[in-house]
Amino acid sequence: MLLDSRHGEALAGNILELVCAISNRANIRIVLTTNKRSRPATEAALKERGITNVKLVDIKSLGCYKQLSRAKYIFTDVSLPMRFIKRPGQVIVNTWHGTPLKCLGRDVRDGIYAIGNVQRNLLFSDFILCQSEYMAEKIVSSYCLDGIYKGKILLGGYPRNSVFFDEKRAKANKQRLGLADKRVYVFMPTWRGDGGNRVNNDQTADLERYLKELDQKLTDDEVMLARLHPMTKASLDLTGFRHIKPLEGDVYSALAFADCLVTDYSSVFFDFAVTGRKIVLFTYDEEEYANGRGMYLSLDELPFPKVKNTDALISQLSSPKSYDDSAFIERFCKYESEDAAERLIGRVFDNKPMEREISLNDDGKENVLIFGGYMKRNGITASLVSLTEHLDLDRRRYFITYQQPVLRKYPMQAALLPEKAYPMPMCTKPQPTLAELAAQVLYYKLNFRPALALIERMLKRDRERFFGSVEFSQVVQFEGYGKDMMHLFRLFDCRRAVFVHNDMLKELKEKNIQHRLTLKKCYTEYDSVACVTEGMIPPVKAISGREDNITVVNNIHPYSSVAKRAEAPLSFDGDTEATVSQQELERLLDTVPIRLITIGRFSKEKGHDLLIDAFTRFHASHPDSLLIIIGGYGELYEQTLKLAKSSAAAERIVIIKSMSNPMPVLKRCGLFVLSSRHEALPVTIFEADTLHIPVVATDIPGVRDVMNKYGGVTVPTTSDGLLEGMEKHLRGETPTLDIDPEEYNRRALEQFEGLFG
Q1: Does 172 lie in the same domain as 157?
Q2: Cα 108-416-701 angle, rounded to 5 deg
Q3: Are 73 and 2 contacting, i.e. CB atoms less than 8 angstroms apart?
Q4: In what order do the strands lie in the sheet with 671-674?
Q5: Within-domain flag for 752
Q6: What is the 3-state secondary structure (H, E, C) of 228-272?
Q7: Among 300, 453, 514, 592, whose CB has the most other CB atoms within 10 angstroms?
Q8: Does residue 343 lie in a domain region?
Q9: Residue 491, in any domain of the structure
Q10: Could you tell me the pTM of the whole model?
Q11: Are 660 and 410 a contacting pair, CB within 8 Å?
């Protein structure tokens, strides 16, 4: 069996107690993860407990991966490596590492994008240990396990908390540390660095000041043992303190004899409360901390006294416990016991039932997986968000998957999805072997068809790694791009649909992001090929040679969300790049009477070069005009900037690289210009229509269908054509589109439902 404690960083808590308990059993070979930095402390902890039958492996070594693949039983208190795939017959137990006070998983808005590895680890666990019904509820909801987790949630005590029931051991530990005649307080503040584990120097300085004040106010018969985060400890030296000492080693051995726990927002108080001893919350930065990280419980709901300064803290330390925590203990600690480790081991090895076990009931709902790709700030993402906002999310469970590493730069993109659309990120990119890497080159670069078999082997492995424990009735490759991703979702054993958002014949000609053999195979083998407009059907048919699986599924008209976003004040994001300041943009929108706008990524098919050339000539005749181009991303951003700066109308061309909410800008413009060389059904047309902004669009398949049907104006796909459209606008010949958004969306949803057979 293999046990992993905190990714090998430290042998402590639940895993330490489980190692001790399991080491007494015969016929079990114990392997324990560690690393170079933590190995000496791990060896010391094992020696202290008299354990000799344990093999240590570095968690990043090949040896560890071998042990992970061979182990019959695996215990972890966090998550296993991203490359790990559970093999048949393995039994995995996740003890987690504490009852959550602070938000977890998808409840942390800027962390939704990154829940993939923890989520999949929980899903393939046979047992998840929870201290209380409350904890089980938070684990299930925050990682979207309801209805799809097939294992057992075990309600039981934490093995690490058995120390609180052993008074003899606690007394011996206190004696060993030379504290027998002292009143002992344990101070465990929460880590206050950022997500990148960088120290917040201001907060460290505050903590140091408070500790110095406490050190002066504590008496000689009092000792405060401080357990600081390693990063804080490195920048805050406690050597010169008289009454405050660093707490090294197993913190729970010290908590067992502590007279009082002092913490702030750490979940350690859920454990310590079972002792019935005093807990004081030192929350000197409560407002600042709460604003940065949500909490499931208000501190006012807790029975423990809160203090804001050292005088109040000293007063609480010197006074007896005067609050009633019986209801708290009943809610959060009722399953704790001195034999918690033995009970868990008995359940896993000997099938002895725990006091209470929870199975998540199958409610009969279908599970649908939708691939959103990179979730970049583009029209495809906007279409996906609009779709999920309009689906009946109670009828089926919709899981949205995407490539998690790409969202690290734009973490809030995943937060755009409605609450009932569950995130299920793919935590890494595909992981090829050397042979599979060679096969990718042979197939995608040289069109060597036999190499596809090796690529499919890789993708089937990834399918198992990311989604293996979940059964889906339908998968939807919504992005419609990505060579490997087109094949990955083709390989599912259920109904499969792939969307087409662009003219792929032209994409194949102009770009290197698609592959004709891949498109042909996928358009042939997917059960449904969903074109967002009828104009996309001929290119798909030309690629696949098959017509019976082609259907039309229009993009949703996002009228309600667009109207709401348009009411927000104009605001640049922290990472917005623009050729003018926000204040200057406001001034231009207020003072320039003729305001033209386009929104679309900086890519050749968007025709920004044609638009800039047309506007340059338009501006020569109409100097009171303004052009705004809002992109998002794209390989031609720098080139577009150069074109704009070299234009004779440069002072009236505004380029904005990225802006999460461009609606307040769109609302204040007079004409939306779609200058695309090819396009399927851009959401931006509907956004302009929602805000009653007339649209001039190039006469291209897909766009032509919408414009002709709803009374829009199309022009030739040339600079002259776009100039003609601008002049038509001045003559009042560009009416707004005549779309009934509710009827349009009703039909679009019917089309989407058609994918389910």
Answers
A1: no
A2: 155
A3: yes
A4: 653-656, 625-630, 594-599, 671-674, 695-698, 713-715
A5: no
A6: CCHHHHHHCCCCCCCCEEECCCCHHHHHCCCCEEEECCCCHHHHH
A7: 514
A8: no
A9: yes
A10: 0.91
A11: no
